[in-house]
# Entry
Amino acid sequence: MPKIPYKPDKTGDDDEDYEIVSFEDFCDKSPGSKTDLLTLNDNINYRLCYESDKGSKAEDEGEPSGKDAQELRETSLGGGKNVSWKRRGSSSFAPFGRHNATNNKGSLFSGVVPKPKNEGESSREHRYQRFSAQATFYQRLVEFWQQCGSTLILMALVGVLCVAVWVGVVSLVGAGGDQHYRKLWERAHHADLLAAAAAATTEKPTPEHHYHDHNNLSTKNKLNITDKYRKKPELNKKSYMERPLATLNGLCSKVTTDRRFDCFPQDGASEEGCIKRGCCWNATTTKYGSLGKPYCFYPPDYDTFHFVNMSETRHGISVCLERMRPSGYPGDFDLVNMDFKYLSNGALQIKIYDAENKRFVPPYPEIPLVTGPINNLKYRVVVESATVGFKVIRNDDNVTIFVPQYPEIPLVTGPINNLKYRVVVESATVGFKVIRNDDNVTILDSQNVGGMILSDKFLQMSTLLPTNKIYGIGERQGPLRVDMNWQVYTIFNSDSVPVENTPLYGSHPFHLGLEDSGKSHGMVLLNSNAMDIVTQPTPALTYRTIGGILNFLLVLGDAPNDVLAEYTALVGRPAMPPYWALGFHLCKFNYGSLNVTRDVWQKNRDAGLPFDVQWNDLDYMSNSNDFTYDTDRFAGLPQFARALHRQHMHYVVLIDPGISSSEKPGEYPPFDRGLELDIFIKNSSNMPFVGKVWNKQTTVWPDFTHPSAQAYWLEMLKSLHDQVPFDGAWITMVSPDFTRPSAQAYWLEMLKSLHDQVPFDGAWVVWNKQTTVWPDFTRPSAQAYWLEMLKSLHDQVPFDGAWIDMNEPSNFLSGPMYGHCEPEDLPYVPHGIRGDGLKTKTLCMDAKHYAGSHYDWHNLYSITESIATNFAMTELRGSRPFIISRSTFVGSGRHAGHWSGDVASAWHDMRMSIPEMLAFSLFGVPLMGADICGFRGNTTVELCTRWMQLGAFYPFSRNHNSDTSIPQDPASLGPAVLEASIRILRVRYSLLPLYYTLFWRAKDSGATVARPLFAEFPTDPLTHDIDTQFMIGPSIMIAPILQPNTTSTQAYLPGDLPWLVLTTEKKAPNKYATIHEHGTVLVRPGSIVPLQTPSPRVPVSTYTTRSEPLQLIVLEDSSGKAYGELYWDDGDSLNSYEEKKYSHIEFYKQSTSVNSAVQWWGYGVPTVNNITIYSIEYPVKTVELNDQPCKKPLCEFSYDAKEYILRVYNMNLSLDKPFSLTWTNKNSYPKLMVPNGGGHLALVNETVVDCRYADCTEIKKR
# Structure
């Protein structure tokens, strides 16, 4: 952003010298003094709406020091162009603020006044100087003391007396700790709400770091700038003149149908109201999509804002806009800043926000800072002063890519020297363009597109796109490719049954755009408020949100995989799961007792089902209360969890953040401890917000923004883990306020209390039967509380993971059990919000977290709980946490996996599970799956068989269903399902080395695990709409059967060569192939795949399989080459990669050899006992391993002349050193001989054959 510049060294004779002074000194000047900022020069008046510290962030952002770093280039309408203002000193400063003592940054300024000349000093000499806040403070303090010292002494004595009286009263009133404790407990009960509300409760101020404060204007100094732009709202309205109706109609006639951008998206649109907004009206009866074409739409050049000024540095562009017309929504922004920050060569941040007032910005994810030079952008941004908006254009082909909190964005520390884009901002128009540099394609274009509306509870921006092939936008059920035909997608975390066109559990306003050339872009809106994303066939998108700011991340790449790698670098790379978590999981809601749980586990294990993890839903709890277990129905649960561990298996329990608030004091530590730490979400009266989930009476929720939340959660988890040694956690009905700083400690404490009883391996978090309160995970103590609670459980049940569910957060009520919600009073209600508004089946929007209101934090609740649970599980077990969460936000993949919720046992839902899984791969959450065989309703033998054949290859593979459905574990459904499940799960377990390597790649470089076909074949248009097949990494395709009454399916196999059916070793023709039920796993040409075949002995688990030798399968591409890799570590340690305790080996096939390269060796890897090379069309004569002939005991080989397969086996090949496997062929190129003019003889394997009596067809082909 531009700053108040220092005066140039060369000044005119008539120039006055000025000094920067504090606001107080500025206001002390007499009215006649030269204190008007506008008199300094005609550039200052429009610079004051900027945050002047922006332009001087060279030091903070790693910009090289020196002359270049001290210059700021400015361009404006009213000021001089091409002027370089030089600044003395390197300290960063900004006007209208306070000295920052924490980082020792320079003071902030409020005014400019003439500086007195010293005797003998030339008036031409430049004497601008920094105002020292510290020096002035002490000088003024001495002066103030001299004037008011006696008065202060008297006031101090009175204050001491008041404090003494207060201490005495408190001592008398507070006598008896039991009474004080009872009052704390009674705060959450209806009978005492009025009395509790009367107690003085002081809420901690909202931490400023959670907000994006771009207000450079002191509230005391509004006469200097605000009156310049906004005298009075009513005057502003009167001063704007609408176009004459005839002129408007002429403009409206130029708008084509597909270019209509809705000017009246609320209910009740009318021609009169439309014209009043200065928009076009043209009613149509034709229905298009779920919305239809708008009747009321914006005319060209709709002047919501006008250009004031812009500046550019090597790290970005800053633009200032002023509102021109009333928007029709309350609380219009009068001054707007539009910042473009270059994050990397292919990544751009676009922020549009109120220049005068604080607005909420999600603190997650943390966007990285750029610390290196940016000198070769792949895009450009276009902003024009004559229109509102901007464009982002790709430089290499001039394609326009874009026209117009809670992820933590990592730092970008490398140089930015090859930008893929450029930003174009023009003073004649509102908006911008982002253009790709290599082809000049405009990626984003918001100039003259719809209306950019910026108001308190309605923010809107539209953009043109370079392609109609858009993917993502979720969470939703439906095809992977977004319908661009007048659809609206609502994003608001909701406890809804998964059906199409309904907002579901997570918030991911991210889309991936794919062009026919294969070039791609991705964009996410980092905003946590409820929103709509509207599509239209232009192609274009419109973003509408009801709070915060417009904060976009735009990423460009040459292919989809490049975009996704860059995107996860910004919002957070996915967590590395423990190896055992990639095994198969079994669960059912309401097994009812430990005996049934044990019987299901034993029955499937005895049947030979590959199987790693047993789960329990909330029925293991006592009265559905977190961090407890039912010592009657589940007597012996701790011993069962430990028995699983002795079998090298794992245990996961459900954990609900909704805490029962109905027990008497001393009977339920999670509630008592939460009150003590004050970590529950509050209502508008500052009492714990009381709702209802599965507890018997009432429920409260931890506030995970509270400073104590993590400690609380750790304490609770430990208490559970001490009882039941679980291995993972499943968090459901998530409702504690995990934004409170104490929430994580609370959660740990609660889990520990349970784990101390039952040693469970995981946790799945949901429901109580009475009233419920929710931890506030924004509180500083919330993590400590969570840790304490988890520990209390873990001490009983040593669980291994956490299953966190119902964390939208879900509430059985729409609002509180007692009292009511404040009116939501929304000028625009997102399209998918039904029932009782935003509070439907959740908390009031005016509920209070430590860090802010639930209105802003609702969509962030699940990620704060995931962070607290991740912290608690790490502290508890000292190994990689395994966490599955139903609700998610941008960046959640860093902390937890996800499953798709309460899907139906139906063919439709099975099919829809694929695009949703692929969408979460795009979102950076690869550990994802659906409830195999469905959750709601009864499955069938055929459906469950097909779903097991599909779900065996979900990255997260679990069979789970509801309490009202029939048992559907494979052993319970009969021999057909059991046999098919064993067969296909053995294939999955053989592929786990590949899955594990892919998860490492996801963590290391942002690669996906499950991915759509177009990610690997972006230039093949036939792959762009396929979401019934998917890839596992670059090498494996899954082509499942998704229709009833059939044993085969048709699949599209891209490329020029046949694919290999993994289980049959037969070739499937490229392009279109019939895939049979036992051949749904295919290998892509050009691949080397590491396998680990499970032992034929039972039982099969990841533990037993990891000890088996490896095999390599090799399938060459059209050039005779192939590639693969293997990552290996102990499968459970926290920092194996960071501490170099891993091994990474690459494999290559070229011509007639297969070789390895050891990239790193830090952990032992199983030996290779078998290498199989396919498509060797000529008989093999010799084989050598590391230059030694392949024969016993080194190895053996065989050649299948019919299938062209070379098998090298009985090896004991160590991978700690590079190996080389080579072979030679017998007469690789047999040629037809024509002796004595005859044409019937051929030389075949050194033998002359007469083709008149032998089949020489194959010879002639060669």
